[in-house]
Design a protein that fits this description.
It contains 5 helices and 5 strands, in the order H-E-H-E-H-E-E-H-E-H. By secondary structure, it is an alpha/beta fold.
């Protein structure tokens, strides 16, 4: 990298812009979330592992005995109606809105498909993990239906 480009990048960060990163293991999901939580701007993501990419549409927890599926959604990524889901990135806003809306659409499609197959579906939101006694009551009620 030449010195002019390096100086430009450093100046951009000094002016308050987020450092940029390219996520090469996007199917995992956690790396992008970690980078984002650390203040990085994820400018692109890809994965060569087909199974990892497919994991975005798989349930997080499957309980055949209860005919139940539990998905744990990150509030930001799945646009929960809490303060964490309401965050709208200032940089690359159109990209993030499109990406997050696609997640919500995919979630609805997957949930309807599971219900059509006879599964009961529960979504646990990231923000709900802050109140474990309440979450335990909710899980117990769901499983005892």
């Amino acid at each position: 990298m030449d010195s002019t480009l390096r100086k430009h990048k450093i100046e951009r960060i000094r002016q308050g812009a987020s450092p940029r990163v390219l996520d090469l293991f996007a199917g995992c999901g956690g790396l992008s979330l970690g980078f984002h939580s650390a203040g990085f701007e994820v400018v692109g993501a890809l994965d060569i592992d087909e199974m990892a990419m497919k994991s975005h549409s798989s349930p997080d927890i499957v309980l055949p005995r209860y005919s139940a599926v539990i998905n744990v959604h990150g509030c930001f990524w799945h646009m929960h109606d809490c303060k964490y889901g309401a965050v709208k990135p200032k940089q690359n806003a159109e990209f993030w809105e499109k990406k997050r809306n696609a997640s919500v659409t995919r979630d609805k499609k997957n949930e309807l498909a599971l219900m059509a197959l006879g599964w009961r579906v529960l979504v646990i939101w990231e923000c709900e993990l802050r109140d474990m006694p309440r979450l335990e009551m909710r899980l117990t009620a769901f499983l005892n239906q």
